[in-house]
Write a structure and sequence with these properties.
- With 410 residues, the protein is an alpha+beta fold.
- The strands form 3 sheets. It has a 6-stranded mixed β-sheet with strand order 2-1-6-3-4-5, with helices on both faces. Strands 8-7-12-9-10-11 form a 6-stranded mixed β-sheet, sandwiched between helices. Strands 13-14-15 form a 3-stranded antiparallel β-sheet, covered by helices on one side.
- Helix 9 packs across helix 10.
- The two termini are 33 Å apart.
- Bound molecules: iron/sulfur cluster.
- The site of iron/sulfur cluster (SF4) has 13 residues, from helix 13.
């Protein structure tokens, strides 16, 4: 099938059964993909208490910001079906591995990880004592012999039963705010690892590429380019304060407005060669949490160090909003305490802004980044309909899709 794979992976951790099912054209005509596809599948597999990862039609393609995927599950914090974006490189890799959606239900008896690779998947045992996110990622990449393997996991806090445990993307904080890291831990699932070496085929590559270029040109008008991380932090009325530690700007798969910054605080920020310092610093991904830390009076370096601790432990940086302390040590202690309380964001879908909500949900549906959708005016139903026609030769009823998107808007 062009643009899509037409494949659904269903994993039952309780029985150890792994099934590959076909998703027919009418599934995509009706649901497009992403969040709408996940909602449909949640209804079908609800009794397994599933965690569902979905890609959209544009995920992994030349469409700008096509790192976008969505993870949906019943939040252990709210009890509601909730949705968070998956960014960085996981979902493009999942699509190249041959799956549009992955449903993971049940709970394993022993610590396990799910290894998805090239139209196949297996559940494998995982060592009991490796529970820190950075160590989990290092261990898996070494064990699987490939540094490009993409990993979703959580950290020590999550595996100790912490409530506000966040899903970590390789080493770094995600935008997940619903305790899905805790849900993974409760399933005895230490990690989901994915690697795909397949292709995404297109019905009409030239026309599809032309449409993507049109979208790319629209991103050029974004006021967030360049220095998107700094501008996003400013949008929360905070001063980034990272001049001294900023090493490089980084972005997810195929992103034209990269909003991530690698900062170095264990060696000079301008050091370009590899030194014997094992961990030179941290990739700042959560601009909102960083802004709050800066407003609490922490300098850029200390705020970055807090973010490192949160990502290693798998604590949702969203809990920072509830802390009263400004001092570095006191803040860490208070975060540990607060993260044992059911704290969660408003609504059941992670939004980076309460403005242009529908545009962010569109990103969750079609498979691009909702942060990019916030930073650039790229939503165009007519063009998207044409792109699906050019990519998959499928006609989607966009009026219906728009209606469904507006209905799920929180
Ligand atoms: S806008 Fe930021 S989060 Fe979104 S794809 Fe680009 S780098 Fe990733």
């Amino acid at each position: 099938m062009d643009l899509y794979n037409g494949r659904l992976l269903v994993v039952d951790l309780t029985t150890g059964k792994v099934e590959i099912n076909t998703l027919k054209e009418d599934f995509f005509e009706e649901n497009v993909g992403g969040i709408l596809g996940n909602i449909h599948l949640f209804e079908e597999y609800e009794e397994m208490d599933p965690l569902i990862i979905g890609t959209g039609p544009f995920t992994g393609t030349l469409f700008p910001g096509s790192c976008g995927g969505v993870i949906s599950a019943r939040s252990p914090l709210t009890g509601n079906l909730s949705h968070s974006p998956v960014t960085w490189f996981f979902t493009p890799e999942m699509k190249l591995a041959g799956f549009d959606h992955v449903v993971i239900g049940g709970a394993a008896e022993d610590p396990s990880f799910l290894w998805i690779r090239n139209e196949n998947a297996v559940i494998r045992e995982f060592p009991e004592d490796i529970i820190e996110s950075w160590e989990i990622t290092d261990y898996l990449r070494h064990e699987l012999g490939d540094d490009r393997v993409q990993i979703l996991t959580t950290g020590t806090y999550g595996f100790d039963g912490g409530l506000n445990a966040q899903i970590i993307e390789n080493y770094w904080n995600s935008f997940e705010r619903y305790g899905f890291g805790g849900l993974m831990a409760g399933k005895n699932l230490r990690a989901i690892a994915v690697r795909g070496l397949g292709d995404i085929l297109l019905a009409n590559p030239e026309k599809y590429m032309k449409g993507c270029l049109k979208v790319l040109n629209q991103t050029k008008n974004s006021p967030y380019y360049p220095e998107a991380f700094e501008k996003l932090v400013h949008s929360y009325s905070a001063d980034p304060g990272i001049e001294e530690i900023k090493h490089r700007v980084d972005g997810c798969f195929n992103c034209p407005i990269p909003c991530r910054v690698f900062v170095k605080y264990n060696e000079p920020a301008n050091e370009l060669s590899s030194t014997d310092i094992e961990e030179p610093g941290m990739l700042l991904t959560d601009f909102e949490a960083f802004a709050i830390l800066r407003k609490k009076g922490l300098n850029g370096e200390k705020a970055a160090r807090v973010m490192e601790i949160l990502s290693r432990k798998g604590i949702d940086p969203g809990v920072i909003t509830s802390t009263k302390t400004n001092a570095f040590e006191g803040l860490l202690k208070e975060i540990e305490e607060i993260s044992g309380i059911k704290e969660h964001v408003e609504g059941d879908i992670f939004l980076i802004s309460r403005n242009n909500i529908a545009n962010q949900i569109v990103a969750y549906t079609f498979g691009f980044c909702p942060v990019l959708s916030h930073m650039a005016e790229i939503v165009d139903y007519e063009l998207f309909s044409q792109l699906i026609m050019d990519g998959a030769d499928i006609e989607v009823n966009m009026v219906e899709v728009e209606g469904r998107i507006n209905k799920i808007t929180p």
